[in-house]
Design goal:
The complex is a heterodimer of chains A (329) and B (266). Chain A is of the alpha/beta class. Chain A has helices spanning 49-56, 78-84, 100-110, 115-128, 144-156, 174-189, 201-207, 225-231, 247-255, 279-291, 306-314, 318-324, and strands spanning 3-15, 22-34, 38-42, 64-69, 72-73, 85-88, 162-166, 193-198, 210-215, 218-223, 235-241, 263-265, 270-275, 296-302. In chain A, strand 1 and strand 2 form a beta hairpin. In chain A, helix 3 (100-110) packs parallel to helix 5 (144-156) and helix 5 packs parallel to helix 6 (174-189). Chain A starts with a strand and ends in a 5-residue tail after the last helix. Chain B has one domain (3-262). In chain B, 74% of the residues lie in helices and 0% in strands. Chain B is built from 11 helices and no strands. Classes of the chains: A alpha/beta (329), B mainly alpha (266).
Chain lengths: 329, 266
C-alpha cells in the first residue's frame, strides 16, 4: 500500500508577540497515512493540529522537515498538491452572500473544472449533502450544520484523492455532529484518504483507522484505537458491593483471579480487578463473590476509553487543557 | 478545454463574477456610498457653495460635480479594503489559497469587480449631478475620456484598497485607516474650493495631489469651471500628470499587494 500523506519532522516556529521568545508550534511532527485510510489527529487546542494541516495543504511553509501529499512535495510542488486535495477548515469558509449553488460553482470553476462539468457536479453534491432545497438561498440563512456540509461539499468538488478535515464538527450541536459523522463515514467507504483533526476522543474513535495523539507540537502516541487502549493496560472488572465492611474479603477473593493488583475504594465501595478474557471473567468474579455471600450492587467489564489513554499519555485530560489554552497557535 | 475555461483569466473572471454577485445582496453598501456623495453635493451646492466664490465667476455646481466624482472614487478604496479584510477574516482567502487557481486572480478579480461597481455608482452620481445643474459642455468624446480617467483612477484606488485590506487585522481597521488617509487627500485639493484660496504652504501639495489633477482633468474635459492653482506643471498638464500618477501608484501598490497576499499567514 502506498502512502498518500507523508510528513517527516515538521517544525514550525512562531515568534511570540510579547518578546523574542519563540513558540515551537510544531516540534518534529512525523506521520504517514496509507492510501484509502483515515488518520485521526487528536489533541487539545493549541497542540499543533491546525498548523500541521495548514502545512500539508500548502497554506503554511514549514520551518523544518518536509512533507508530501500523493507524492508531491508540499513546498516545491504546491500547485500539484492543491490540485489533488480538498480542505475543509474549522471556520466554515464559504461566501455568506452567495447561495449554496453559487459557492460550489465558484469553487468548482477555481478547481479548473469546465463549466458544464461544474454545474453537473454542483447538482450532485447539493443532492448528496441534502442541500438541494437550500441551494438557491444565501449562506446567511443556513444553520451551522448546513454551512459545514456546504463547506465539506466545496472541498469535494474537485474529486480530491486526499481530503483534510480540520475539526469538522467543532461547534456543532450533537444532532448535526452525528449527521456529519454519517457524511464522513460515507466518504471513507468510497475510498478517500482522509486526515481528520479533532479534539473529541469519541470522534477519532468513531471515524479513524489510526489515531495520532498530538500534544504541544509533538506526536506522543500513534496506533489504532485498540492499540492505544492496550498501551495503558487491558480490561478490568469493576464491581460495586453493598456492604463496605466486606471490602477486605473481596480484595482477598479477587486477588486469586486478577491479572494485576486489585484496587479498592472503601468510600465508593468500588473494586477494580484487572483481567483478561472478556465477559466470562465477569461471571467468574460474580460467582466467587456470590459463593461467599457478598452482595453485588453493580458489576461491569470496562475497557479503557481514549479519555483514559489521553490522561495517561499527557498527564492531563483533553477537555481541561482545551479550556485553558483557548488560543489557537 | 478552451482557453477561457481555465487559467488565470478564467479564474479572475470567476472571482469578478463572485464579487459582483455580492453587490445586490448587500445593497446597503452601495446605497450608503451614493448617499454619502449626494450629501456632499447637497451640502456644498446649497449650504457652503454660496460662500465659495469662483475666481472667474463660474457656476459652483458645475465646478463641484467633477470633484464629487473623484472624491467618491477615492473613498471606494475603503470598500475594497473592507471587502478584502472581510474575506481574510472569514477564511475565504485561505480557501482560495488552497485551490489550484491562479494566485493573482483573487486580487485582479477583486479590482475588476470594484471598477465595474464604481462605474455603476458614477452613473447614479452623474444623474444626480444633472439634476442639480451640472452640465457636460465639451461633447461626447471628451466626456468619454474623462470617464475613462475616472475609472482608471478607480482601478488605482482598488489596488491601494487591496493592499490596505490585506495589511490590517480586521474590517474596522480597514475602514478607519482608509478614512483617515483619503479624507485629507480629498480636502487638501481643488475638489471643494478654488485652490488659490488655500494657504500658500498647502498649495504645492494640493497642486500635485492626484485627486486635484484628476479633478482638474475632468473639469477641463467636461468644460466645467477649472480655476488653476498657478503656472506649475500639474496645472498646465493635468491629464498627463494624472496618467503618470495612475501608472506610478499601480506600479507601487499592485506588487505590494501581491507580495502581501503571497506571504499571508506564512
Amino acid at each position: 500500500m502506498t502512502n498518500a500523506i507523508v510528513a517527516e519532522d515538521l517544525v514550525k516556529v512562531y515568534k511570540s508577540r510579547r518578546g523574542s521568545k519563540e513558540v515551537r508550534a510544531l516540534d518534529g511532527v512525523s506521520l504517514t497515512v496509507p492510501e484509502g485510510t483515515v488518520l485521526g489527529l487528536l489533541g487539545p487546542n493549541g497542540a499543533g493540529k491546525t498548523t500541521t494541516v495548514r502545512i500539508l495543504t500548502t497554506l503554511l511553509r514549514p520551518d523544518g522537515g518536509h512533507a508530501t501529499v500523493s507524492g508531491f512535495d508540499v513546498v516545491k510542488q504546491s500547485k500539484d498538491v492543491r490540485r489533488i486535495m480538498g480542505l475543509s477548515g474549522q471556520y466554515a469558509a464559504v461566501d455568506e452572500n452567495l447561495t449554496g449553488w453559487e459557492n460550489l460553482y465558484m469553487f468548482g470553476r477555481l478547481y479548473e473544472l469546465p463549466k458544464a462539468e461544474t454545474k453537473k457536479r454542483v447538482g450532485e453534491l447539493l443532492e448528496q449533502f441534502n442541500l438541494s432545497d437550500a441551494g438557491d438561498r444565501t449562506i446567511k440563512t443556513y444553520s451551522g450544520g448546513m454551512r459545514r456540509r456546504l463547506d465539506l461539499a466545496g472541498a469535494l468538488i474537485g474529486d480530491p484523492h486526499v481530503l483534510f478535515l480540520d475539526e469538522p464538527t467543532t461547534g456543532l450541536d450533537p444532532r448535526s455532529r452525528l449527521a456529519m459523522w454519517d457524511v464522513i463515514r460515507g466518504l471513507v467507504k468510497s475510498g478517500t484518504t482522509l486526515l481528520l483533526t479533532t479534539q473529541y476522543l469519541e470522534e477519532a474513535d468513531e471515524l479513524a483507522d489510526r489515531i495520532a495523539v498530538v500534544d504541544t507540537g509533538k506526536i506522543i502516541a500513534e496506533g489504532t484505537a485498540d492499540e492505544l487502549k492496550a498501551q495503558i493496560g487491558g480490561e478490568r472488572v469493576e464491581i460495586i458491593i453493598s456492604d463496605a465492611s466486606r471490602m477486605d474479603d473481596v480484595y482477598r477473593l479477587l486477588s486469586t483471579v486478577s491479572t494485576g493488583e486489585v484496587q479498592i475504594d472503601k468510600r465508593t465501595r468500588k473494586v477494580i480487578s484487572p483481567t483478561k478474557g472478556g465477559a466470562s471473567r465477569v461471571l467468574e468474579a460474580a460467582k466467587i463473590l456470590d459463593d461467599e455471600n457478598v452482595e453485588i450492587e453493580d458489576i461491569a467489564l470496562r475497557r479503557p476509553s481514549l479519555d483514559d489513554v489521553f490522561l495517561n499519555l499527557t498527564g492531563h485530560k483533553a477537555e481541561e487543557i482545551a479550556v485553558e489554552e483557548d488560543e489557537n497557535v | 478545454m478552451s482557453v477561457m475555461e481555465s487559467g488565470p483569466v478564467s479564474d479572475a473572471m470567476v472571482i469578478t463574477w463572485r464579487n459582483l454577485k455580492r453587490i445586490p445582496r448587500i445593497p446597503e453598501l452601495a446605497i450608503f456610498a451614493i448617499l454619502q456623495s449626494i450629501m456632499f453635493v447637497l451640502l456644498f451646492a446649497f449650504v457652503f457653495g454660496g460662500a465659495i466664490p469662483l475666481p472667474d465667476g463660474g457656476n459652483y455646481k458645475e465646478f463641484l460635480m467633477p470633484g464629487i466624482f473623484v472624491q467618491t472614487i477615492a473613498f471606494a478604496s475603503a470598500t475594497t479594503a473592507i471587502g478584502m479584510a472581510d474575506d481574510m477574516g472569514k477564511g475565504l482567502i485561505d480557501r482560495f489559497r488552497s485551490l489550484p487557481m491562479a494566485r493573482s486572480a483573487v486580487l485582479t478579480g477583486r479590482t475588476f469587480a470594484d471598477v465595474i461597481y464604481q462605474a455603476g455608482i458614477l452613473v447614479v452620481l452623474m444623474l444626480a449631478g444633472l439634476a442639480v445643474g451640472w452640465r457636460v459642455n465639451n461633447g461626447a468624446e471628451k466626456f468619454l475620456l474623462a470617464v475613462l480617467l475616472l475609472l482608471g483612477f478607480a482601478y488605482v484606488m482598488a489596488w491601494i484598497g487591496v493592499w490596505i485590506g490585506l495589511a490590517v487585522p480586521n474590517t474596522e481597521t480597514a475602514q478607519q485607516l482608509t478614512f483617515v488617509t483619503i479624507f485629507p487627500l480629498t480636502f487638501i485639493s481643488n475638489v471643494f474650493v478654488p485652490p488659490e484660496s488655500l494657504p500658500s504652504f498647502l498649495q504645492p501639495i494640493a497642486e500635485w495631489n492626484p485627486v486635484s489633477t484628476l479633478t482638474a482633468s475632468c473639469r477641463e474635459l467636461f468644460g466645467n469651471p477649472n480655476p488653476n492653482i498657478g503656472d506649475g506643471f500639474p496645472s498646465q498638464y493635468p491629464i498627463a500628470v494624472t496618467i503618470g500618477w495612475a501608472i506610478l501608484l499601480v506600479a507601487i501598490f499592485a506588487p505590494l499587494a501581491v507580495r502581501k497576499y503571497r506571504n499571508t499567514s506564512r
